[in-house]
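Fold this sequence, please.
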Amino acid sequence: MKCLTILGCTGSIGTNTLEIVAAFPERFDVRALCAGKNVSLLTDQVRQFGPELAVVLDEAGACELDERLGRGHGVRILFGDEGYREAATLSSVDMVVSAMVGAAGLVPTVAAIEAGKAIALANKEVLVMAGDVVMSLAVEKNVPVLPVDSEHSAIFQCLQGQDRRFLARIHLTASGGPFLNSSRNEMEKAGPAEALSHPTWKMGKKISIDSATLMNKGLEVIEAAFLFAVSAADIEVVVHPQSIIHSLVSFVDGSLLAQLSLPDMKGAIAYALSYPERLTSVEPTLDLAELGQMTFERPDDERFPCLGLAFEAARQGGTLPAVLNAANEIAVHAFLDERMPFFRIPALIEDVMARHKVMTSPALSDIMDADVWARQTAREMI
């Protein structure tokens, strides 16, 4: 029996994780559920899975959850950063599923690693902001960091049993998002409704906008560099609209290995939860004959400049990836609130990056300071 804390239990990854837990009750037990403001859904999850601890964003949410659960519910309820850290370090927990959106997931994930918990990592911002710090700490604590993103899970699976000396390149696939075939003029006029209409994946709002700008893929490049100890220069992005090949690796002899499955996050989540074993019948089997054709193309750097900004942040390193991530979060929320047009997202991020004085080899506190600075700078520029 593996005991879990789920950071971000009401989001897309969190709800899919709980579906897997419900399907394999003999394998998994939920000890802590952590949400933000969706107290209604969290209430249902607490009733179904019976954790010992539930955490929400603020005190008002904690009071609401307590009231909704009713007398004698027996669940400890906490809120805020201290609550998230408590959930991430519970003595009864074996693995922490890190699925909070954005920079908020960094501190509790680091706390979980320091406490010796295995990490199922869905929050790419954790490694984007502090990859050196996080992965070094994981090695020191002998803690596995298992990828949950479908692309990184694919790479992880392709590298099983391989001699890493012969790895030549990592190939991250991208669906291309809702604007793959849109002109620059059409993209400049796009509003939140158009940008949120992803053709393949069903995701939360923030990650959907990141997919529309291809920033999501840029963040994944930085994450992959830390997860697999390679240079970002040895990673390429290829657009694959069908989202069947989740990523590939190539070797020095010219051969490629790919991982294929239907576009459903349950497979990647299940593999992280059960590694090195595999769970049965998690997702439908892919029918290659029915699938027919798969296509590939290079991303258009002019229409999707966020991808180039991410590669530049990876090249310079230090605190710049944290600045990239923070500026992007502010820009995305401003666009969703209709306070900024779509085409200004990469322009704002580039302007904030240009103003930042990069600190090399930063400590975690330096990274957090850079994050705060970038958010404030982005808000002022908006």
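The chain has 17 helices and eleven strands. The mean pLDDT is 94.
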